[in-house]
Amino acid sequence: MNERYRFADFDEIMRQFPDQADTLIVDAYLSDSVEASMRLFRIYHPLPRHYHTQCDEHLLLLRGKLEFLIEDEPPRTLQAGQMVSFLRNVVHGVRPIGTAPVIFFAADTPRRAPDDVHFIDPEAAKGLKFVSHLKDYANTIG
Questions:
Q1: Phi, psi for 14 (deg, rounded to 5)
Q2: What does the DSSP 8-state code read for residue 139?
Q3: Residue 95, beta-bridge partner list
Q4: Separation of alpha carbons 128 and 99, rounded Å
Q5: Lowest mean pLDDT among 50-64, 95-109, 111-125
Q6: In sequence order, what are the beta bridge partners of 44?
Q7: Cα separations (Å) of 29 from 36, 85, 90, 94?
Q8: pLDDT at 133
Q9: Whole-model pTM?
Q10: Dist. CA 138–CA 36, nearest whole Å
Q11: Do 140 and 9 form a contact (C-beta atoms < 8 A)?
């Protein structure tokens, strides 16, 4: 793999997400450096209100429809093609709408450490682990 550039086939990665998961999300890292991380992730259960202390987050909804909860604002409905960006320590959560898979492209600046998730109500995750990972898909286009 060349460290100076990467190719990724989003459709191929999305096909690899399982139909069900025993974690809140499953993600696939596209890049992961100190400066930034980029991921595709699928949401499998409502994502309780939480925040990150180490990164700002930029989320582009690729598939699905959801209610996005942010700070104390009323929920906002997002559909595929819409984006939300927010700074570290901003409380947010997600409630999928309907049965279509909810899949995001995420850019985190600087990188989001896998353990940098802080739930407002830890019991709200219903005992589910936050994330599991697909293999490295940094070069899914030959």
A1: -60, -30
A2: B
A3: 67
A4: 20
A5: 111-125
A6: none
A7: 11, 19, 22, 20
A8: 86
A9: 0.89
A10: 14
A11: yes
